[in-house]
Design goal:
CATH superfamily: Aldolase class I
Mean pLDDT: 91
Structural class: alpha/beta
Shape: globular
CATH architecture: Alpha-Beta Barrel
Number of domains: 1
Order of helices and strands: HEHEHEEHEEHEHEH
Helix content: 25-40%
Distance between the termini: 19 Å
Number of strands: 8
Low-confidence stretches: 1-9
Radius of gyration: 16 Å
Largest sheet: 8 strands, parallel, barrel
């Protein structure tokens, strides 16, 4: 993330590319650049860890040719430690590996260190936050799923709202105030404002906010979302 982008928002905005229309991709990217979107959120799904197939390696390589906005890769894949070399991970990217996706989580984190990217651990709505205790020394952020992963357009699991507050306290009590909480799933403008007050710092914005209506609405949608974070 460039210094210019850091200065624009009080919260980090990651646009969920699963919600974009492929025929409008280039125009959408241009809007995101003009509005200083911080990251492009890429939901990588393998049909095994989650019951859906999502955006893949070729799609991400294509995005690199269109923009220098860094990627926020959400890897919903089984055994990610075996597949990270496929992803063309770069220094300014965020990469989220699911706690539930591998019995060798530390190995996966150690592999990510070689890319010098920001290392996040994602957890599903029903996964308790205490499972993160042993990896806090090795990560930059936590992607807290507000919905069960796999499909866009779901309603947030109610318990996840206060889970953000619990997670922030857990991190602060562990002397890890620098660890970012990313929230992902059904992040409306109103919910983003509340979750920021609860301690979230990074927001995946999709069909509930940035991509509402058609492409003519995107610029106004982004401005409204950012205003909610300010």
């Amino acid at each position: 993330m460039s210094n210019e982008r850091k200065a624009v928002h009080k919260g980090i905005v990651s646009a969920s590319m699963m919600c974009s229309r492929l025929v409008e991709l280039q125009e959408t990217i241009k809007i995101f650049e003009n509005e200083h979107i911080d990251y492009l959120h890429i939901d990588v799904m393998d049909g095994s860890f989650v019951p859906n197939f999502g955006l893949g390696c070729d799609y991400m390589r294509g995005l690199r040719e269109l923009t220098d906005i860094p990627l926020d890769m959400h890897l919903m894949i089984s055994r990610p430690e075996q597949k990270l070399q496929w992803m063309d991970i770069r220094k300014n990217d965020v990469v989220s590996i699911h706690y539930e996706s591998t019995p060798q989580l530390q190995k996966a984190i150690d592999i990510l260190k070689n890319y010098e990217c920001k290392r996040f651990i994602a957890i599903n709505p029903a996964t308790p936050i205490f499972v993160l205790e042993e990896v806090l020394e090795h990560i930059d952020g936590i992607n807290l799923l507000m919905v069960n992963p796999g499909f866009a357009g779901q309603n947030a699991v109610p318990s996840t709202i206060h889970k953000v507050k619990k997670l922030r306290k857990f991190l602060d009590d562990s002397n890890k105030k620098n660890i970012i909480i990313e929230v992902d799933g059904n992040i409306t403008n109103e919910r983003a404002k509340m979750l920021k007050e609860y301690g979230a710092g990074m927001f995946v914005a999709g069909s509930s906010s940035l991509f509402r209506g058609n492409i003519k609405n995107y610029s106004d949608n982004i401005k409204t979302f950012i205003q909610a974070l300010n």
